[in-house]
Automatic annotation (TrEMBL):
GO terms for molecular function: N-acetylglucosaminylphosphatidylinositol deacetylase activity. Its EC number is 3.5.1.89. It is an enzyme of class 3 (hydrolase). InterPro entries: GlcNAc_PI_deacetylase-related, LmbE-like_dom_sf. One of its GO terms (cellular component) is endoplasmic reticulum. This is N-acetylglucosaminylphosphatidylinositol deacetylase. Belongs to the PIGL family. It comes from Paraglomus brasilianum.
Amino acid sequence: MYPPDKNANIVYLTLTCIIQPLGNESGLGRIRTEELEASCKTLGIKETYVNIENHAALQDDPRVHWDPEIISDILKDYVIKNGVDTIITFDDQGISGHPNHISCYNGARNVSTSDFLIYKLKTVNVFRKYISLFDLTYTHYNYRVADGKKKTNGIVKPLAPPDTMLLVSSFGNYIKAREAMKCHKSQLVWFRYLYVLFSRYMVINELERVQ
């Protein structure tokens, strides 16, 4: 679960379905809904996998804490309805520190993990956040790339779910993520262009399993 506009500029590498609030900050809910749908289409996410919640307690405002219990209930319904086996959300620092980002983590953490996995996207410091691919010189010492499979005697067997994963985008996927970000026209202020150019989250995602 992520607030509006974060699907393209943070988590493209791992995203296959998405749950988001309406995004009605500044009264732009209808516009941002259309932008989100266009962004997801660019990313190749099926329309049936996109769930936009217009909940009175989950209105888009980066200064506001959302109720984790409400988020948890929404996620439970979505997981059951769509047969989801993995949830990916922010960590307890929320990447940018916004309270609603952190609330997404707290809500996801409250969902039972007996039948599916929950991963959190790791927050890094500001310096590492804006050095793009150069951050790999640090991260490759700390995380292994997990492909979920290994071969034993010619037989492909699934690995146990990893506790950590390092995902690195191809150039083609980076370009696709940029195109998806352009769909969020109402939020493309000047500093977000810098984000697209320099943020390591456009090309590197570190995931940690929530136990």
